[in-house]
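Render this sequence as a predicted structure.
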Amino acid sequence: MDRFEVALYPPLAECPPERRSYRQAHLAINGQSLLELVRTAEEPWARAEYLERLPEFENPDEFRFEPGDYHYLPASWLLLPSLELLGRPRDPGFALELGDPRRSKATVLGCTCGIVQCWFVQVRVTVRAEVVEWSEFGQFHRPHWHYGLGPFTFDRRQYEAQLVPQEAEPGAAPDTAR
């Protein structure tokens, strides 16, 4: 059985001035930061796309394409009473065909610009009687990128306990693995 963890951190300081700062919910699977897991999974895809698109730019130094370039989401998006991580995700905000699988996936990481839907990672969350499963990780705007993460199977009681809002520990600092 895999282990799911949520840690709350102080409001995001890097938020653009036009966006309101928010308390981040850092997600981890089996003790590993979700951001690191995604960064590792995206590395070959991002590198290949970077090399493919590089000739389009007059100044290569202006073209930045980094794997795992995300922020954790606001706690209010992920923790109860939100059902985002309990198999009832919000609409991703794009016009999609009714059968598009991205419509029914949860958003777990958002863009560093402060607008979550700009560049984001989704996962299929399947809730069963005793377990919750995460599978089919993907970058919304790059459906051809295959992450090879999961499926992860969590004990439902342990998983749901992590979704209960709690205060951050005094002196907690944001994830500095980036």
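Summary. The mean pLDDT is 84. The first strand starts at residue 4 and ends at 11.
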